[in-house]
Every structure is written in C-alpha cells, then in structure tokens.
Amino acid sequence: MERFRWQVAAVAAVGLALALEALPSVLCWLRAGRRQQQRPPRRQVLFFPSQVTCTEALLQAPGEAPSGPPAGCRCSLPHGESSLSRLLRALLAARASLELCLFAFSSPQLGRAVQLLHQRGVRVRVITDCDYMALNGSQIGLLRKAGIQVRHDQDLGYMHHKFAIVDKKVLITGSLNWTTQAIQNNRENVLIMEDEEYVRLFLEEFERIWEEFNPTKYTFFPQKKRSH
Amino acid sequence: MERFRWQVAAVAAVGLALALEALPSVLCWLRAGRRQQQRPPRRQVLFFPSQVTCTEALLQAPGEAPSGPPAGCRCSLPHGESSLSRLLRALLAARASLELCLFAFSSPQLGRAVQLLHQRGVRVRVITDCDYMALNGSQIGLLRKAGIQVRHDQDLGYMHHKFAIVDKKVLITGSLNWTTQAIQNNRENVLIMEDEEYVRLFLEEFERIWEEFNPTKYTFFPQKKRSH
C-alpha cells in the first residue's frame, strides 16, 4: 500500500512538473500566433519620376455618375500601378484626419484626392508656403474654396516641408513637392511609414507651425523673398 | 529498500522535470541579455531652421595647427548642439564611404565636413543637379577641385533628391537642401535612419543614377529649364 502511494506521488510529480514545463512554450506559442496575426507596420519607398498612368479609378467620387471614367477605364494611358498611384492610395486610406505640410501643391490628381477625402468627412488641414500658393495651377485656392482650412507662413524663410500624416498613424515624407513637374520629371523620393515615433514628432511639428501660422496673428503682408 | 528506491526515483523525476522547466526561461534570459547588449539602431529626426551655433570644434582637421578654433572655442556663437551640428556629426561618423545625392549644395560647413572625410580616406561620391551647381557659394566646384567625383544630370527634370548614405549603413534624407538659406531660415526636416532596407533601396537608386549620369555618356550641353 505504501509502495503504491509513492508510485502515485512520483507519477503525479512528473505530470505536474511536465505540465509546468510546457507552460512557457504554450504561452510563447500563443504569443507568436498573436504577433503573426498583427499586420506588419506599413513601410514603402516611392521613387520618382513616376510613370504616367490613369488614376481615374482611384479618384472616382462615390456619388459620381457611372458615365465618368469607371474602374475599367479605356483611356489611352497605362492602367497599372505607379509611384503616383501608390501615393494616392496611401492618402485615400485616410478615414479620420489628414495633415498636409507642403511647400508647393499643384498636382490636380493629388488635389482631387484631398478634396475627395474632405467630402468623405475626413478632417483635412493644410499648411503651405505663401510664395508658392499662387504657383501656376496651385491647388491651394481650390482647397480653400472647398472649405478646407489652409494656413501659410508670412516670413522670409520657406515653409519647405513636404509631408502628410494619415489618420495620425502613417507619415508620408520626402523630397517631392506635389507638382506635376516633380512627379513626372524629377528624381524624387517619398517614404511611407507607419511608425508611432516619427508620426508623433512630425505631428508635433505640424501643430507647432499650425499654431504659429494662425491667421489671427498676421502682422504684415507677405513680401518678396530672395533666394531658394 | 523498495520504498527507498521509489523515493529516489520520485525526487530524481521532480529534479529533472524542474531543470527542464527552467531551461526555456534560462534561454530566454540569455537571449534578452544578448539583445540588450546590441546597440539599438540609430533613429533621429532633425527639424530646421537650425539655431546658429559654432561648429568649428567638429570641423577641425586632425593636422591643423592648434592656433585654429579649438574644442574650447571662444567665438561669440553659442557652442551647444543644433540641428546642423547633429547633421554634421552623422556625416562625420563615416569611416569608409559617403554617397551624396543633393539638389543644391552651398553650405560651407557641410562642404568642409565632406572635404574632411575625403582627406581621411573616406570614398565620397556626389550626385547633383546641373542647374544648381553654379548656385552662389556652391560647394560642387570645390569638391571637384579637391578630387571628389561629382556627377550631374543633363536633362530637363531636376535631380531633386536630398539624401546621403553613410558607410552603407545610415540613410540621411528629408526636405533639406544643403544651403545656408535652408538651414538657417526654412522649415525643413531630416531623418537619420540606421535601417538596412531603406539603405539598400536608396543605395540602389544612387547606383542607378550614378551610372546614368556617367560623364562618358554626355549627349548635349545642359540647357535652361523652365519651372520648379
């Protein structure tokens, strides 16, 4: 009887110990599963000049008549992906907010994308440079007319940033001014980064400039600048 | 005697099981220790305009006479850190190679840093835009004269990148042209990223352009361009 009790105790001890031993592995496995389920943060590098492609399918407003250029558009442009279409997609993913801090903004496609987001109820705020607001084909006037808040500098330095923040989660930044000249002809780069730290730092910079360019603080009429 | 044997077996089983149980934790602990020992990859965001500070101590060539501005320089400028001094530090960390892909380059401090690296035996290669090579105070002629290889475009689009790659390990990129105007007056950003993937992609872009701008392939003399 005594021997039997010791046998049971030994088996129970081994069982318990094995169960305890397996625990970290099981936890590890569960944690790894959860990590795999999480989508990896978005990282993309776009180089320009961008191939000229049709972006109509991307820019179709939901309420527009189906007679407009549809998803199966037959215009003569290529319909594949390009650096511009990837940039448009990254912007059009916005659901709640879009901050734009842009030296020059005259690309009609990017202008339409921003107006679309505004129509969808996304809170759009734009900071730009006062000297480049009147650029040929500038989108700034159109955005203001559509009811989007735009603020600009009134000093001699350039507001030379070229970044966007989508839903306070994704930072889009690089050398690219949002002009057709730059998109189609220049060597440029754009980084698209889902990165908490970078987004925080650039959002702080945006809010600093937004507050500084508050239109109630205008002190003088913008004057001509000298060099780039 | 039999009872004693079972007691020994039970104790041995528990001991073995406990040892096995502890194994993953010990491995985990060792691995965590190794991770902590590794320096975290460098990530820095610089915003401009930069405070004007004295950068002489950083730019002192090793062979220069000690009568030049020393580490304890007494000039009237502040001697603390600034965005420019941080950018200089990131560049001056180069030991083997430096690729520069810059639209405009006229900052004398950044020019001196690049010349210092060249003197130290770092392999420096520069790509720039042909229209901005003759900018007031351009550093490009000085770099060429010092024996640094410079290549430039010969087409109508701008070579508008503003990036550097240090030792094929650190990418420095952003909106900043390397001019005193931009450094001291503009709103600008520069990212410093020790990131294998970004470095690989930007190095590929550099090599593509380097090969394309090969001076043996010149086809015509640069002409005036139109708009930015």
UniProtKB/TrEMBL annotation, chains A, B:
Domain (PLD phosphodiesterase) ranges: 155-182
Pfam families given in the database record: PLDc_2
GO terms, molecular function: cardiolipin hydrolase activity; metal ion binding; protein homodimerization activity; RNA endonuclease activity producing 5'-phosphomonoesters, hydrolytic mechanism
GO-annotated cellular components: mitochondrial outer membrane; mitochondrion
InterPro entries cross-referenced by the UniProt entry: PLD-like_dom, PLD_domain, PLipase_D/transphosphatidylase
GO biological process, one term: phospholipid biosynthetic process
Catalytic activity line of the entry: a cardiolipin + H2O = a 1,2-diacyl-sn-glycero-3-phospho-(1'-sn-glycerol) + a 1,2-diacyl-sn-glycero-3-phosphate + H(+)
Similarity remark: Belongs to the phospholipase D family. MitoPLD/Zucchini subfamily.
Subunit description: Homodimer. Interacts with MOV10L1. Interacts with MIGA1 and MIGA2; possibly facilitating homodimer formation. Interacts with GK2.
Name of the protein this chain belongs to: Mitochondrial cardiolipin hydrolase
Lineage: Eukaryota, Metazoa, Chordata, Craniata, Vertebrata
